[in-house]
């Protein structure tokens, strides 16, 4: 099956803050926008932030967490599966941008089927992001 771009919309507490984080910080190009929302190109996918004034300027999106590979993984979370060189470049950008990773970039399931590079961090509004990479995406993405 041919993969097609996903569309994901999330709420943020401040549009200007989201523009700085996703646009300037992570390097995602901006598409269409209005006063209350902004489209970003997240590795070819349409990612949209919508202002939610109910969050307030210090608000955060609520999360739970589950244990995966001895780490506490936030739920909900979203992100993109990347080629390893792209993941390594994003990890370098994220290290310069993010003060506190939820899970620092590392290799998960090392030496096992589905071995992957992964990292988790949150945007300023608390939306949890995971970016991962496989050396062979087709063979490893759904490996058991």
Automatic annotation (TrEMBL):
Residues 4-134 form the VOC domain. Coiled coil: none annotated. It comes from the Bacteria. This is Glyoxalase.
């Amino acid at each position: 099956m041919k993969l097609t771009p996903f569309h994901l919309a999330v709420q943020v507490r401040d549009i200007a803050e989201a523009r700085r984080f996703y646009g300037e910080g992570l390097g995602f190009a901006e598409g269409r926008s209005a006063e209350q929302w902004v489209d970003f190109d997240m590795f070819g996918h349409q990612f949209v932030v919508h202002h939610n004034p109910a969050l307030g300027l210090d608000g955060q999106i609520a999360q739970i967490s589950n244990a995966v590979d001895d780490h506490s993984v936030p739920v909900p979370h979203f992100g993109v599966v990347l080629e390893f060189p792209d993941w390594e470049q994003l990890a370098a950008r994220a290290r310069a941008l993010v003060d506190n990773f939820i899970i620092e970039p590392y290799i998960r399931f090392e030496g096992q089927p589905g071995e992957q590079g992964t990292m988790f961090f949150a945007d300023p509004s608390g939306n949890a992001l995971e970016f991962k990479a496989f050396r062979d995406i087709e063979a490893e993405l759904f490996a058991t």
